[in-house]
Amino acid sequence: VQLVESGGGMVQPGGSLRLSCAASGFTFSNYGMSWVRQAPGKGPEWVSTITTGGGIKYYAESVKGRFTISRDNTKDTLYLQMNSLKPEDTALYYCARRGPSYSTWNLPLGQGTQVTVSS
Q1: Is the distance from CB of 22 to CB of 4 less than 8 angstroms?
Q2: Which of 40, 55, 58, 109 is the right S-S partner for 49, CB 3.0 to 4.6 Å?
Q3: Is the distance from CB of 97 to CB of 30 less than 8 angstroms?
Q4: Are β-strands 44-50 and 9-11 bridged in parallel, bridged antiparallel, or unpaired?
Q5: Which of 22, 44, 17, 56 is nearest to 106 (CA)?
């Protein structure tokens, strides 16, 4: 299993970023996928999950209405569109295969992509 996240960066509050996660080493279309983040000094936090076909999406309350998860099974790629970013969204963002429930995830994680929201 290999997961490679990209698309992070530094953005001002209110700005947008689109994260990508390229998956390989497993049949991507057979797995629900999730985004997880970890802020400095804090534990990992579940952000969002999408089902295998993309028809059902789940979001943490902290990002609902601002973030959109999507996937392209023809490209084995997961996305996270992040709008109206806030300083508290600053974290290292990872993608992962979803766990037994929609707010859990399975290892391994990728190397992560850093998102910094600051003026």
Answers
A1: yes
A2: 58
A3: no
A4: unpaired
A5: 44
Tell me how far apart the alpha carbons of residues 117 and 119 are, in angstroms, rounded to a whole number. 7
21-77 per-position pLDDT tens digit? 999 999 999 999 999 999 999 999 999 999 999 999 999 999 999 999 999 999 999
CB 19 within 8 A of CB 80: yes
By the 8 A CB rule, do 5 and 111 touch?
yes
DSSP tally for the chain: helices H, then strands E: 0, 11
Cα angle, residue 47 at apex, residues 42 and 53 outer, rounded to 5°: 150
pLDDT, tens only, 84-95 = 999 999 999 999
Residue 107 per-residue DSSP state: S
The phi and psi torsions of 99 (rounded to 5 degrees) equal -95, -160
